[in-house]
Amino acid sequence: xxxxxxxxxxxxxxxxxxxxxxxxxxxxxxxxxxxxxxxxxxxxxxxxxxxxxxxxxxxxxxxxxxxxxxxxxxxxxxxxxxxxxxxxxxxxxxxxxxxxxxxxxxxxxxxxxxxxxxxxxxxxxxxxxxxxxxxxxxxxxxxxxxxxxxxxxxxxxxxxxxxxxxxxxxxxxxxxxxxxxxxxxxxxxxxxxxxxxxxxxxxxxxxxxxxxxxxxxxxxxxxxxxxxxxxxxxxxxxxxxxxxxxxxxxxxxxxxxxxxxxxxxxxxxxxxxxxxxxxxxxxxxxxxxxxxxxxxxxxxxxxxxxxxxxxxxxxxxxxxxxxxxxxxxxxxxxxxxxxxxxxxxxxxxxxxxxxxxxxxxxxxxxxxxxxxxxxxxxxxxxxxxxxxxxxxxxxxxxxxxxxxxxxxxxxxxxxxxxxxxxxxxxxxxxx
Length: 431
Ligand code: ATP
Ligand code: MG
Fold this sequence. Notes:
BirA Bifunctional Protein, domain 2; single chain; binds adenosine-5'-triphosphate; Rossmann fold; 15 helices; binds magnesium ion; 2 domains; 16 strands; alpha+beta; elongated
């Protein structure tokens, strides 16, 4: 007989288990966020987790961080297809909209929730599998929709119970129209070529591929040279200026504070005009909770008809970390009744009575084995169920059960057939 130890298998690094205690908060968050999306007329969509690699290479852009170094890409061993675990969901939602002709009936407001995958260095607020909520407003070109999306986000902070002073703050910029970006890009390239000796290796590489991203550099030694670089704002034409002005005017009217952030460029290629991030200073380095922008050119890049659009994505782990920090949510309880069988033979009775209570819509826990009254009542209290139904020797013999309201200690003897109505009345009285 072998006594060799097998070491337990572990989850993939940077990919987290969500245990039942975590799931209570997650499901509360999912429900709250979904209800705000619905208020604004967004409808849910769910796309596959695996997509053709080409979707992201084309949609996100070849020289972005995501496509260069963060994608989980693999070859389908059975048919040789190049596939990728989705690193984000905008490209996939637009693909689905094109594939199913969703815009045939007019513009669409869509939302999604699900896991995304990026091969990053795991740290607080940065994981390899993480979750995003996102909304995509497809087929809208008016700047009012940009403002509406930001209003939605502001209402979301309120709905989640984040006090005003602790809410993420809005950073806003415009990336202008493609031709303006191209002219700015040339000016940037010329400027950085003149200052090549002040750049680091990463920036030198970006110089030829994506000079805009140099502005995004986190290297403090580049701060001075970046500060002197040509500003995209100087290249904005009338359309870009008035689009941004409308968004600003509407935010002002709504009382939503923002900072114009000329160096906010976002990590993806497909943006134009409005871009934004909601940032908190309460989570350390990973402070961007939500980011988004307008991507009027994406549909065409993916082979669809021209279709202006704007969207955003929220990092769920970061949002929950922020809530934990500033406004721990009072998550609703998930049990109504905890059954406590103590007498010999009471376990069968417990399962049977619980079944009646459950049919009446109550959420009921039945233990897997008999135990002492004291230890079971302790577990009942810990479960946060407000009602314990105790099945002891004398109660069983009399066809009764003791119903105990745990928060007040109130207790009464109730005939088995009256249990559902008595417990419902008790819960209603203490609601
Ligand atoms: P960052 O600059 O932090 O890498 P990003 O620009 O790559 O963020 P987006 O692609 O805009 O992020 O994704 C939207 C949101 O998703 C982010 O604001 C963040 O809250 C969350 N997010 C992005 N990457 C991760 C990750 N690896 N782990 C956890 N959350 C993430
Ligand atoms: Mg990133």
